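Task 17 of the worksheet. Students: predict the tertiary structure of the chain below and write it out as structure tokens. Keep your answer in the requested format; marks are given for formatting as well as content.
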Amino acid sequence: MASTESSSAALIIPNLLQNRPYDRAMSLRLPWPEIDDVLLDMDGTLLDLAFDNHFWQRLLPQRYAQRHGMTEEAARLALAPHFERTLGTLDWYCIDFWHRQTGVDIGALKREVARDVRLLPETTAFLDALKQRDKRLWLVTNAHPETLAIKLERAPIAHYFDRIVSSHELAAPKEHPGFWQGLSARHPFDPQRSVLIDDSEAVLKAGHAFGVGHIVTAAWPDRGRPVRTGLAFPSIRTLDELLP
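Model answer:
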């Protein structure tokens, strides 16, 4: 939430990420010969999270206010209980759910502003480098399938991935053990010979609990905000820090 907003408004819609400073630690080195599968988050890891922060914290309240004839502040207050109730659930990521709750066509609105979807600058070079090393690349995302399609149209990286999995296919968000159990059952892999890279600590904790051998936090998911610190797992600013 931008600092220009009132403190009360800042509490209404939870920030997707905390705006915290970051003290650079020693570069993280992964044992790449011991890693077969690279499980990558999309928003905040490969794509700039600025798009989602703007969409949910500013654009949706604006459109909700317009649709229901209220002020933007009143719209934030009206939306707050829905955000609080669904945080960490599959509904939090479901554009059909938010369409029903708000009366705003979320998919259409995302398409309207899809021009603002941005790959993080280092993404393509990182994916190229991993493919050259014959790593299996997985895109594992909580994004709704329609959202996923919209973003991959604007950021054409689908061809890099051996697997693209939305948590909606498995009926559980990545924060939940059911996602990891379902993922392994549908697409068997050796978690100990895998690395999970994500900006969400809740997701990383779930992956770690499942047994993923290497966990990395993407600490600079929104390039318009400072890099984060005080994170539970080893962290990087940019993906290229992981390459030899």
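Marker's comment: The CA atoms of residues 108 and 207 lie 32 Å apart. The two ends are 36 Å apart (CA to CA).
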